[in-house]
Each structure stands twice: as C-alpha cells, then as structure tokens.
Amino acid sequence: MTFSTQASSIRPYVLVICCILVALSVAILPFCFSYISIKLPVNLLFIALGLFVIVYARSINMQEFKAIWLVLVCLILVIGIAYLSLYFAYNIGATKQAIRQYLLEPSLFLLMSYLIVRRLNDKELMLFFVLLCVALCYHPLVTLYDFFSSKAFAKSGFNTIGYYRAMLPHYHTPATVYAFYLLVTLGMSLSLAIFMRGVWRLAAVGFVLLCFGAIIANGGRFALLSALVILLSPLLLYSYTHKRAIVLGVFVALCVGFGALYAVSEKWGARYNFHSMINNFYSIWNTPPAEMGKYNKGCKATNCSPHSLDKPSDISMEYSSLSRISMLKSSILAILENPLRPNGFHFQQFPYNIQNIFPLDSINHPFPIASKGGERIFPHAHNHNHIVSFWFELGAIGFLCVALVVWVLLRNLYTLHIPLTHPHQARISPLRACMLSGIGFSIVGLVVANIFDCIPVRDGHLILFLLFGTMLALQHPANIQSSKDNYATNNQTAL
Questions:
Q1: Residue 138, Cβ neighbours under 10 Å: how many?
Q2: What is the pTM of this model?
Q3: Each residue of 338-354: b (16+ CB within 10 Å) or e?
Q4: Taking the CB of residue 256, how many other CB atoms lie within 10 A of it?
Q5: Would you state the torsion angle of the CA atoms of residues 215, 216, 217, 223, taken in this order, to the nearest 10 degrees?
Q6: Cα distance between residue 427 and residue 218, in whole Å
Q7: Distance from C-alpha of 69 to C-alpha of 92, rounded to nearest angstrom
Q8: Rounded distance, CA 249 to CA 243, Å?
Q9: In Å, what is the CA distance from 440 to each residue of 237, 380, 447?
Q10: pLDDT tens, position by position, 435-472
C-alpha cells in the first residue's frame, strides 16, 4: 500500500483529531499566564498543523487561496509594515516578539483553520461547531459565579454592578479585556437562537440572556454597548422586507434611548455620568493632552504630567474616561505628524513608542505619568482605541489593510442575503449560515468594543484568527455551492 493510499484512508480521522485539538486549545487559552503556560495550547495548535500537513500536503493547491487573495495580500502587507516599523520602534526586541506572537503565529493558524474547515463534510463540521460552542460556553457561567460569590455582592448586592468586575478568576488581564470571550460567546449564542428550532431555540435564547447577564456582571460600560450592537447586528447583516425603514426606526429609537440616558445619568456616579462627560467633552478635547489631568481631582505630581499641576478647573471627569481622551488625542496628533509612518507595531508598545514622537515633558504626551521599574513613564499598557492604534502602529497603509480584512469578512456574510424571518432558506446550509453568522455578529461587536479599548490580547488573539480562518473557509464559493447542493439533496430542516 502506497503512502498516498494510506494517507487517504486516515484523512477523515486526522481532520477530526485536528478539530479536537483546535477546540481544546480554544478552551484552555484563557487559563494561560495564570494557571498554565501558553506553550501548551500553542503546541497543540502546532501539532494539529503538523498532522494536517503530513496527511494533506499533496492535496493543497494554489487555487484554494484564490478566493481569499485579498485577505492574504493584506496580511502580508501588514506583516511587512510591522517589520518596517522596527525602524521607528523604541524597543526592537519587544516589537519583534510582538510580530511573532500577534501576526506570524496567528496568521499561520488562520491558514490552518481555513484549510481544515474547507475539507470538513457536514457531519465533521457539525462536530467542530459543537466543540467550539462547548469550548466557549463556560465563560458566562464562570463570570456569573464569580459575581454572585464575590464579597462585594455579599456586602452590597446588585449595587455592586459596574464596580465589581466579574470574570474568570485570576484571568491575567483586567476584566475589560476578558469581555472578549463574553462577546464572542454572545454572538455565537445569538446565531444559535436564530437557527435552532423548538426546545433547542428556547435553550439558545436562555443562553443569550445568560451571556447578556454575564456582560452586565463584568461591569464594562463599552462591553455592554458592544453587546447591544451584537443583538442588533442581524438587522444590518440579514435580509428582510422594509429593511431601510426598520433600520432607520431602530436608529431613531437608539438616539432617543441615548438621549434619555444622557438626561437620567446626571445624578449617577462619575463613572456612569454620561451627562457630565458629554457636556464637558468639548472643553476637555480642546485642552492639550498633557494638561488634561487638571480635570481629575486625583492628579498629583506622582501620577500626572507637570503640565496638569496647579491648574484648577471647575470641570471634573473620572480618571478612566479622561485618560482615554488624553491617549486618543495624543495618538491622533502623532498620526497627523506623518500619517504614513508606522510608529512601532503592537498596542502594548505604545507607552514607549509615543515617547519617540512626544517626550514625557511634551505638551502633547498623555497626562498620566508614573514611576515604573525605576523610570518615569506612561503607566497604561496600551492606547485605549484599537482602531486609532492600528493607524499609529502601522501607518495609513497598514490601517487600510486591517480594515479591508474586516470588511471582506462582513461583506461576504452580508452578500449571502440570509432571510431574517426564514434563515433556513438561505443559499447555504443552515449549519454553515449559523456558524458564519455567529462569528460575524461577534466581529461587529468587537469592532465597537475596540473603539474604546484594545482587545483581545495574545490568548484571545489566537482564537480570533482561528475564527477568521473558519469564516473564510465557510465563505469560499465552492463550499457555499456544495453546501447548497447537499442541503437540497438531504432536505434538511434544522441544524
């Protein structure tokens, strides 16, 4: 028996093993840096890649990549520009490491998931989808458990919402970043609620509510906004009658709702006082970034730029929002100096790379400054607007490439014209439409979340690229056609 014959006989088993390894990695990645080394899930992914290449290497041809050429070109350009940014970066070694961890490895696993999912039949794809759902479903459960078992809840009850930030215990970064997992799980759950039928739909709707409750318990203001956008995203991505009128009506309703929130929040605490934030935004924005600390009462010589000291003001804003505005304006001013210049890849290098443009004593440096490792430096790990940060890190061309990748993913889902009221009548099997929708809803929510922060970090970044690869495979024209033919032949009526 030749090697090719042996390989053909074990291929289905290898695909299943690869799917299991990918799902297992997705399940344990959030435990990295706190409970386990990230080497474990990364090595599992490399094992899956190795198994796939050994068995399928001869069947891979360049035609498979023709449908995703634009995404591949964008990824190659982003990687190239990231290496070019080493010339402008403050720490070359740390930037090289970030390129490997956030671009090279994830892109490799994106291609792996793309090639694997391209070869899955409907039964294997169903197994992979179930494994992914299982790998993600514990996040809202553990978040709610953390909230209700906390000392803060025992003392103050539901009044602690927004102040106690529930998440997976000992997760290695703040709860704001952990919201990534809750948003992805919400997107997948919403898709299941749309496509499932009978008692399974009720169960999926229940899990959507559970996810939303977990996001409330997580306490992130902008995670909650992103969750609301995810719940509304089917209205944008699906097809239905009177779509323009309904979308316009929803937009007007949201404007009225935000107007009511603006009025009601006047009596709320500083963290949620949107009335005060909006009223004072114009004055704050027209202040140089290094002087903005004067609008926070906790600003002292130990944590603020000298430009913010001894400048009393009647305006007051809580620190989190104020620092975000200061970082945003400083980043935009740096971009305006040279929109094409890549200032150093990765958002976690921002505290160092911003100094190459605006030194600590510059009026345009963000106002927060603290002692860290024996030196005075911007104390936050990164900028808090990933969209602007992409432009700051990669320049205009790199930013355009990132935007194009997201646009391609969402455009391909949109052009499927999945009927909102009868999603099973889409020109693709319900299973594939469900998976595409779940990932697409999640991406829409993450775009909104990244207006206010930079998420995810390395563990979630690997998961995100695996989902990108899965989505690209499901959107492949050949897969759509074969999926449509199989669905018509089998006359499926539900997932």
A1: 15
A2: 0.92
A3: eeebbbbbbbbbbbbbb
A4: 10
A5: 50
A6: 38
A7: 30
A8: 10
A9: 9, 30, 11
A10: 999 999 999 999 999 998 899 999 999 999 999 999 99
